[in-house]
TrEMBL record:
GO molecular function: hydrolase activity
Protein name: Alpha/beta hydrolase
GO cellular component: membrane
Residue ranges annotated for the AB hydrolase-1 domain, each copy included: 23-249
SUPFAM superfamilies: alpha/beta-Hydrolases
InterPro entries reported in the protein's UniProt record: AB_hydrolase_1, AB_hydrolase_fold, AB_hydrolase_sf
Keyword terms: Hydrolase
Transmembrane regions listed in the UniProt entry: none
Source superkingdom: Archaea
Amino acid sequence: MQTITSADGTSIAYETDGDGPPLVLLHGGGTRRYWEPFVPRFSDDFTVVRPDRRGRGDSGDGDEYDIGREVEDARAVVDAVAGDPILFGHSFGGLQALEAARDAPVQAVIAYEPAYLVGDYRKRANLASRMQAQLENGNRREAMKLHLEEVIHGGEIDELDRWLEEWPAWPEYAEHVENAARMDRALEDHQLSETLDVDAPALLLTGSEGPSHLRESVRAVHDALPESRLLEFDGVGHLGPTEAPERIATELRRFLEETEAADPTIEGEQI
């Protein structure tokens, strides 16, 4: 494990595997361990870099929180690696990757269901306040259940507790509930720019079973990017990079190999 110092002095921890051009993986919830099923598919050909987001894993935290600080953390990782990296982010990490790529030198940026809130959903979003009410009553696990139900399942799942019993990350995932609540509040206040001025090839990914608000979001991001390709994975949900790592790794490699010849206007392919 190594550490770097972000713009506000926060220590950001990261782990590297393999050898080759840098591939930075930015997680959403949890920690850098989220990417463990994905790393072996790239570590033979890339230096795979996995940071912990601030306040999670082995990273430090600051006195104040906003999305801009998390973007600065990603930029600090970009500056720390040798060469211009490829950024691949999942969920909040997808937003983090896209925002960092606006003024950081990157070879390409890839985002799976980046966590922008758009349209009517953003106007009525109240997940953070619902979570805060549970936290104030001492119900940390119930607060995290609200987050998981909304973010992973779009608020539409029968027998959430049964699903959680079969999910390996539970109940340890609830340790991050305060960070999840502050992130959700910041996302509710964050506005997607009409244009994301990213000067690098961009690949946007979604799953047919992902939450409807994030499937709407990824299409809004596609419209905001000057050059992007959008792919949808049939039968895959919001946890796509760990749910179907081989399928997603195959498409990432294809994108990286074809980037120079890719038609940036391709939209809505389903695979």
